[in-house]
Amino acid sequence: MHLRTVFRLFAPLALLLLAACAPAPIYKAAPGTVTPLPMQVAHAPEQYGNSSVIWGGSVVAVRNFPGHTEMEILGYPLDSSQRPQPNAQGIGRFIAVFPGYLEAFNYPNGSLVTLTGQLSGTRTGSVDQAAYTYPVVSVAQSHLWTQAELRQGHPNVSFGVGVGVGIH
């Protein structure tokens, strides 16, 4: 059998196996869910109104107030499982408003979250010395990603040629 024929037979199987390793999305898009980037909503909030969104990113700060908690998040694109991709270019910051009290210790800076919620306008603030417009999301559901979940679906497979020596 030719090498090309073997490749044609096994390539689809290999792709199917790799795709099966990726976890399913955690949230189903509700009717009316939109897919703008946080920076797009910040520039034209009237265009998006009170739409539902599924966004994720890296926690920048957590602030507790009487009756609610606000989380500043640096948004990142989501993969097919809705995991934020922190190695990608940031897509804008936003404020996530949670009902009740969240323990800031459980959401350290840099931890990754995905949430679904409803846009509820914008708020002006600053990032360092620069003025900034934050989209505000009233959170319906959220997920704090663990390191194990972030690795799931990323097979530890490597190919190489050579001699290896291991010391146990």
Automatic annotation (TrEMBL):
<feature type="signal peptide">
    <location>
        <begin position="1"/>
        <end position="24"/>
    </location>
</feature>
<keyword id="KW-0732">Signal</keyword>
<dbReference type="InterPro" id="IPR004658">
    <property type="entry name" value="OMP_Slp"/>
</dbReference>
<protein>
    <submittedName>
        <fullName>Membrane protein</fullName>
    </submittedName>
</protein>
<dbReference type="Pfam" id="PF03843">
    <property type="entry name" value="Slp"/>
</dbReference>
